[in-house]
Write a structure and sequence with these properties.
Layout: H1 3-7, E1 10-16, H2 18-21, E2 31-36, H3 54-69, H4 73-84, E3 97-99, E4 105-109, H5 110-118, H6 122-125, E5 134-137, H7 139-146, H8 156-179, H9 201-209, H10 217-245, H11 248-257, H12 261-280, H13 290-297, H14 303-311, H15 313-323, H16 332-347
Parallel strand pairs: 2-4
Antiparallel strand pairs: 1-2, 1-5, 3-4
Helix pairs in contact: 3-4, 8-12, 12-13, 12-15
């Protein structure tokens, strides 16, 4: 489905990104975001439709695996519970996200929008709270917005902070590249390894993934050296990709300030929004702290201040999570009923 086709069925469209936050500058792009309802024929495109349950379970288990890798046990537990829940299902259909080629314009099909909003996706849940720079708002969207309380839940504690932590990790990695770039491609001989590994190719990945205490003493040292070499190669390749694909403007910005000030602004915004949601039960899209966020974007905060702002955020969020009066999870039945009602009126069918 093309963007122009989706636009004909649009029920909500607004100017998003930095303009919606009030943190835009003269150089800021204009991002359009919105929601559309796909024609009913799209539900019957056999080879593009996914089975109910497939996406929800798989996506939550993937997220749980990532959380385990980050030692975020609380998030992993919640994600595994979500994967096992029988009342959520999968809201994916053949049409999901439609973008306009060459432009920063994107529309979410209503079914996918509901799934992402129910998951408290930071980039999506804010749609329900936008109250400015709106270009299209149909009756269906007014009805959805009136029931936005069905979607907001304490899950925001994990989704917003998860995005923020990913931003912080990226900033730290890139700052490391700036201050201490790899000196050259790793050489196996630097790790006292032969040019050709003694470990058979078909066993390599399995052996390198085993806990070191499960490996026989004869291979322990070599496996440890192989892992060190593999880690160094991964870092080297990541550095090469970063250097090759860097945006020129962002490259100049990072060289000037020593870190990515735009990413830093967003990570601070995300953590603050998470706290506001848990405290107020609202998503404040147009930022009350926009002047301070713009200071970060202008490079007026040293990197140490960014780290200081993040230092106690996880503890504070956990404390606010337990005190929050928000529902533990979204109202899946209410969301499902709302979707049914809108579909019945849109498609003229009795479900």
């Amino acid at each position: 489905m093309t963007y122009d086709e989706a636009l004909k069925h649009c029920i909500f469209r607004f100017v998003g990104g930095s303009h919606s936050y009030g943190t835009n500058g003269p150089e800021s792009d204009v991002d359009y975001r919105g929601v559309f309802i796909a024609p009913i024929s799209k539900a019957f495109e056999l080879f593009q439709t996914r089975f109910v349950g497939q996406g929800c379970i798989a996506d939550n288990l993937k997220a749980a695996l990532k959380s385990v890798g980050n030692s975020d046990w609380h998030a992993a537990e919640e994600q595994i519970k979500a994967a096992m829940a029988t009342d959520q299902g999968d809201l994916t259909m053949s049409v999901g996200t439609v973008s306009k080629p060459g432009c920063d314009e994107e529309l979410q099909e209503l079914r996918k929008f509901f799934k992402l909003a129910a998951d408290c996706n930071p980039n999506i849940i804010e749609f329900l709270y936008v109250d400015r720079l709106i270009e299209v708002e149909k009756d269906a969207w007014t009805e959805i917005r009136a029931k936005r309380h069905l979607f907001l839940s304490k899950k925001a504690r994990f989704t917003f902070s998860g995005y923020a932590l990913a931003q912080l990790k990226r900033i730290k990695t890139h700052r490391g590249y700036l201050l201490n770039p790899p000196k050259g491609k790793p050489d196996r001989r630097d790790y006292e390894l032969p040019l050709d590994s003694k470990i058979q190719k078909q066993h390599r990945n399995a052996l390198l993934s085993l806990p070191i205490d499960m490996i026989g003493s004869g291979l322990k040292e070599e496996v440890a050296q192989e892992r060190a070499y593999e880690d160094a190669m991964t870092d080297w390749q990541a550095y090469q990709d970063w250097e090759k694909h860097r945006n020129p403007a962002r490259k100049d910005m990072e060289a000037k300030y020593g870190y990515d000030v735009k990413h830093a602004m967003h990570l601070v915004r995300l953590v603050r929004m998470a706290k506001e949601i848990l405290r107020d039960g609202e998503v404040h899209v147009f930022r009350p702290d926009r002047e301070e966020l713009l200071q970060i974007r202008r490079g007026e905060w040293p990197f140490e201040r960014i780290l200081e702002a993040m230092d106690n955020s996880d503890y504070e969020l956990e404390e606010m999570y337990h005190k929050s009066t928000l529902r533990e999870k979204p109202d899946h039945k209410g969301i499902s009923d709302l979707y049914m009602d809108i579909c019945e009126r849109t498609y003229g069918v009795n479900l």
